[in-house]
Amino acid sequence: MSELTIRPAAEADLPAIIPLLASDPISGDRDDPSLPLDPGYASTFASIAARPDCHLMVADDGGEVVGVFQLTFVPGLIRKGAWRAYVEGVFVRADRRGQGIGARMVAWAADAARAHGGCPFLQLTSNKGRTDAHRFYERLGFQRTSEGLKLLL
Amino acid sequence: MSELTIRPAAEADLPAIIPLLASDPISGDRDDPSLPLDPGYASTFASIAARPDCHLMVADDGGEVVGVFQLTFVPGLIRKGAWRAYVEGVFVRADRRGQGIGARMVAWAADAARAHGGCPFLQLTSNKGRTDAHRFYERLGFQRTSEGLKLLL
Predict the structure, then answer these.
(1) Does B136 touch chain A (CB under 8 A)?
(2) pLDDT 10s digits, A32-70
(3) Are B89 and B21 in contact (CB under 8 A)?
(4) Nearest residue of B to residue A33 by CA position?
(5) ∠B115-B119-B122 over CA atoms, to 5°?
(6) Which residue, A117, A123, A119, is CA-closest to A140?
(7) What is the mean predicted confidence (pLDDT) over B86-103?
C-alpha cells in the first residue's frame, strides 16, 4: 500500500479497469471484460478525456490498477451558482477491499472538489442494495440526504 | 397553457428564474432573488452556456418563465460506455403547480436524452423531505433505485 497513487486513467488501463466493473455482484452483468473490449469503452474513454470537467481516476499500486472512480464537475444555478461534484463508478478490486483504497479514492475526490472551488458538497448515488457501501460512505462523513430516481429510457 | 414551450434559458431570464429557486420551502433559503442578482448566478450561467453537455431550460408560457430545469450529459464507462443523463433543479412557479408543467419539462428531458443516444436512464436525486416530488416522479415512471449521499466540504 505504500506505493498507492491516485492518477488519471489512461486508455491503456481499460483492460484492467473493466474487470473491476464487471465483477461487481450488483451491477457487473452490464459490463463485459472480454478482450478485445467492446468498442464503447474506448469511445466513451475518449469523450471523458476530452472534457476538462470529467476526471476518470485509478488507484495504482506499484503499477497495478486496484481501484477506479470518476469525478465530474457540473455548474448549476442553485446556491448562487454553486458547482456540483459527482463521484460515480467507485470500484475496488475484490482482493484488495478492506485495505483503505476506497477511502483514499474518496478523500482524493473531496480534496479535488475543494481545490476546484465553488462545490459545497461531494455527492454520489449508490444502489439501494449496496448497504455495505452506504455504511462505508457514512463512516467517511456522508449523509443520506436524497432519493435517487431513475426513468428507464 | 397552449403557448407553453420548453426553450433554452437566456441570461436575461435569470431575474425570473432565481425567484423560482428561492421560493422553494425546502431549499429556497440558499438562494437570493433580490436585484441586482448575486454575481455568482451570471458567472455560472456563462459556465453552463459554454458547455455543450449542459442544458439549462425554461418553461415559457407566453413570454413568462413558469418553470426551470437543467439537463446534463456525462460520459461514463459503466454499461459499456453509457452516458448518464442527469436532471437537476426542477422548479415550477408556485402559482402554476398542478397544471402539468413539471411533467412537460421531464418529458422534454427524456426525449432529449433519447435523442442524445447512449443514455439508458434519465436520473435525478430529490431531497428525502420532498415526498410529493417523489410521488410525482413515480407517477411519471421513475423508480427509487438509489440512495443519494452528500459529504459537506
Answers:
(1) no
(2) 999 999 999 999 999 999 999 999 999 999 999 999 999
(3) yes
(4) B80
(5) 95
(6) A123
(7) 95
- The separation between the first and the last C-alpha atoms of chain A, rounded to the nearest angstrom, is 42
> What is the distance of C-alpha B113 from the center of its chain?
13
Task: Pick the residue from chain B with its C-alpha nearest to A39.
Answer: B80
Q: In A, which residues are within 8 Å of B122 by CB distance?
A: 150-151, 153
CA–CA gap between residue A110 and residue A80 (Å, rounded): 21
3-state helix, strand, coil in chain B (%, to 5): 40, 35, 30
| Residue count (chain A) | 153
CA–CA gap between residue A44 and residue A69 (Å, rounded): 14
Residue with cell 428531458: B109
Q: What is this model's ipTM?
A: 0.95
Residue with cell 481516476: A57
Measuring CA to CA, which residue among A75, A120, A114 is closest to residue B88? A75
Q: How many CB pairs under 8 A join A and B?
A: 239
Q: Fill in the DSSP letter of residue A38.
A: P
The CA distances from residue A110 to A104, A115, A124, A151, in Å, are 10, 9, 12, 29
Of A6, A4, A1, A3, the C-alpha closest to A110 is A6
Query: CA of A42: how far to CAs of A30, A39, A93, B89, in Å?
Result: 16, 6, 21, 32
In this structure, the number of other CB atoms found within 10 A of the CB of residue B36 comes to 8
Question: Coil, strand or helix: which one is B56?
Answer: strand
The angle at the Cα of B12, spanning B7 to B16, to the nearest 5 degrees, equals 80
Q: What is the pLDDT of residues A106-137, one digit of tens each?
A: 999 999 999 999 999 999 999 999 999 999 99
CB-hemisphere CA count at 13 Å for B116?
Answer: 26
